[in-house]
């Protein structure tokens, strides 16, 4: 009933709307009018809040998105849409950078809208860049000022699209039934891409040149969309910023997701004894914001799920087996990805101090972020990341933790993803973003944090009122050119240059993006990634098996000595492994 009222109200609005056609486009979905903007001395048309799916309210809550029917009359696309319901206090702080990522406008369950920026100086056949936002699949919105596509459209003559998708409980709750199949936030993105494919030509875009670019959970979404048979044909290339799909976070097995849903339903007064249909009906009667807030209070986060339908395989297996769309990819991370999270999660880290943590805090941090390590593996990680030449420096363990976190969660998943694409024969490019913005108020030790590249990708330094340096303006222009070139051709270089070499299996070349001249580096943390893949995982398997066998025997000093002997023999193999990788990189 609620849905019918909303649709009737929307139809009445469209039928009676009288809008001056400042920017006027007729699409297969219907006629839309938007804003005409003067940007960088050229004209950009902005169409804000175009619906791409039926409102996911009432009986459609928790279901996969359904297509929006074409409308009659004129749709007024001149104001930003609401963000999807979420925990607006997710980041827990009021620092400038966190505020930049937090929606400050209306929030609604009726949120499946997208925005289009059309460069008028490139009338047809323009490459299309579709943005997928980050936020750990818990928060995020296409309406953030940070994601304004006008500069990218004006500077590079590309059509820019940003899309909303459901997050948190309303986006990823899973029951294994049609009523709540899980992955709604991913299928929302697929629905938006389908709309783009069918309608973007009306805005001058080429539907065969659609590149999805995204950061953090948005980058991870690209990998999932690339894996799924339901979505892989809806786009052509991907730009993955700090969000490789094989990162060790942010997904559940079907059984884990189901059990999480049962516990959550009980916590909000929807007991499971009457069956799954009754649970879903009960949850649909609850206030949407209350459901999200309760998931936060109960620390019950919902993520993408390997459901056997939209996602049929674990990402690591999919990459190994080649079960993903063969497409060009540009992938990378920032120099100091983890510092943004460390100040939130771990005792001893703070943006108000030098964060000179102790060895004990270092070890607790390892155990907190990587709970699957046994005592032997923890010892190995401490040994591997201790800077023995500078072991008396007070910031030793702070810097070591940043390095190991970056390797484990970002750089090594990037390398794994890049290798998989090279094996498929796809054009593959890698970067490290290494520029700390001059107007950032956080301490120097935090470096180039997670998300720091986005303002440069979207051209915010070109806004003189924001106080960026001339060098940062030039860097932003260069990055926008790289991203647009890649969307157009699958190669980030200009036609007359080859400063950014492709990633390959031998030396793993990548480019450093900062205000200095472009430069290539080789082997992005190859030895460190070998440590995690080829040493730590076998170490855990071998020592777990050894400890299991000894748990069935009387405790003797000889048995303990055997355990230590195995550990130190494995440490020796670590030296050999590192030597092999160093030799390989310099051979």
Description of the structure:
This protein is α/β, with parallel strands linked by helices. It has 3 domains: 2-325, Rossmann fold (3-Layer(aba) Sandwich), CATH 3.40.50.1820; 332-527, Alpha/Beta hydrolase fold, catalytic domain (Rossmann fold, 3-Layer(aba) Sandwich), CATH 3.40.50.1820; 528-586. The chain has 18 helices and 19 strands. It has helices at 2-16, 96-100, 150-156, 168-172, 184-199, 217-227, 254-267, 276-285, 288-297, 315-321, 339-345, 359-369, 375-385, 396-423, 454-457, 470-489, 526-551, 557-586, and strands at residues 23-27, 30-39, 42-51, 74-76, 83-84, 107-108, 113-119, 126-132, 159-163, 174-177, 180-181, 205-215, 237-241, 252-253, 305-306, 328-334, 428-433, 510-513, 519-521. Strands 1, 2, 3, 4, 7, 8, 9, 12, 13, 16, 17, 18 and 19 form a 13-stranded mixed β-sheet that branches. It has a two-stranded parallel ribbon with strand order 5-6. The protein has a two-stranded antiparallel ribbon with strand order 10-11. Strand 18 (510-513) and strand 19 (519-521) form a beta hairpin. Helix 12 (359-369) runs parallel beside helix 14 (396-423). The longest helix is centred in the C-terminal third of the chain and has 30 residues, at 557-586. The active site is at residues 216, 337, 450.
């Amino acid at each position: 009933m609620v849905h019918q009222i909303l649709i009737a109200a929307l139809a009445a609005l469209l039928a009676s709307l009288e809008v001056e056609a400042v920017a006027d486009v007729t699409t297969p979905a219907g006629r839309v009018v938007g804003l005409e903007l003067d940007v960088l001395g050229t004209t950009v048309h902005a169409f804000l809040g175009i619906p791409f799916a039926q409102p996911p309210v009432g009986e459609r809550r928790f279901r996969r998105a359904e297509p929006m029917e074409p409308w009659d009359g004129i749709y007024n696309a001149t104001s930003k849409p609401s963000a999807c319901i979420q925990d607006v206090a997710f980041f827990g702080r009021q620092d400038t950078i966190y505020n930049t990522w937090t929606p400050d406008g209306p929030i609604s369950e009726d949120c499946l809208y997208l925005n289009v920026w059309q460069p008028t100086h490139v009338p047809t056949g323009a490459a299309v860049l579709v943005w997928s936002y980050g936020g750990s699949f818990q928060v995020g919105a296409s309406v953030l000022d940070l994601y304004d596509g006008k500069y990218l459209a004006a500077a590079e003559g590309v059509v820019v699209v940003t899309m909303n998708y459901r997050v948190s409980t309303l986006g990823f709750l899973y029951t294994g039934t049609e009523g709540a199949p899980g992955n709604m936030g991913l299928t929302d993105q697929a629905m938006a891409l389908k709309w783009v494919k069918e309608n973007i030509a009306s805005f001058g875009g080429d539907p065969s040149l659609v590149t999805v670019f995204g950061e953090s959970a948005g980058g991870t979404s690209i990998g999932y969309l690339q894996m799924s048979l339901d979505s892989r044909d809806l786009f052509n290339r991907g730009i993955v910023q700090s969000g490789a799909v094989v990162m060790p976070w942010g997904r559940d097995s079907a059984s884990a997701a189901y059990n999480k849903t049962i516990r959550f339903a009980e916590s909000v007064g929807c007991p499971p004894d009457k069956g799954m249909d009754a649970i879903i009906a009960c949850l649909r009667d609850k206030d949407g914001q209350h459901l999200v807030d309760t998931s936060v209070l109960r620390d019950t986060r919902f993520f993408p799920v390997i459901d056997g339908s939209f996602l049929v395989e674990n990402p690591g297996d999919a990459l190994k087996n080649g079960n993903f769309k063969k497409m060009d990819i540009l992938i990378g991370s920032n120099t100091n990805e983890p510092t943004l999270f460390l100040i939130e999660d771990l005792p001893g880290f703070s943006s108000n101090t030098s964060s000179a943590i102790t060895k004990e805090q270092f070890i607790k941090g390892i155990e907190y972020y990587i709970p699957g390590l046994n005592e032997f593996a923890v010892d190995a990680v401490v040994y591997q990341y201790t800077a023995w030449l500078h072991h008396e420096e007070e910031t030793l363990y702070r810097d070591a933790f940043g390095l190991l976190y970056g390797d484990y969660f970002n750089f090594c998943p990037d390398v794994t993803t890049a290798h998989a694409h090279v094996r498929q024969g796809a054009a593959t490019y890698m970067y490290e973003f290494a520029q700390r913005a001059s107007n950032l108020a956080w301490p120097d030790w935090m470096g180039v944090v997670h998300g720091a590249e986005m303002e440069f990708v979207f051209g915010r330094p070109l806004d003189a009122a924001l106080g960026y340096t001339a060098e940062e303006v030039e860097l932003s222009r260069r990055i926008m050119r790289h991203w647009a070139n890649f969307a157009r051709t699958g190669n980030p270089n200009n036609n007359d240059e080859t400063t950014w070499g492709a990633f390959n299996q031998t030396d793993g070349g990548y480019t450093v993006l900062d205000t200095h001249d472009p430069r290539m580096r080789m082997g992005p943390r190859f030895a460190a990634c070998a440590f995690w893949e080829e040493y730590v995982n076998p170490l855990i398997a071998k020592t777990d098996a050894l400890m299991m066998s000894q748990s069935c025997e009387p405790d003797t000093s000889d048995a303990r000595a055997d355990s230590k002997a195995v550990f130190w023999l494995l440490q020796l193999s670590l030296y050999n492994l590192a030597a092999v990788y160093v030799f390989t990189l310099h051979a």
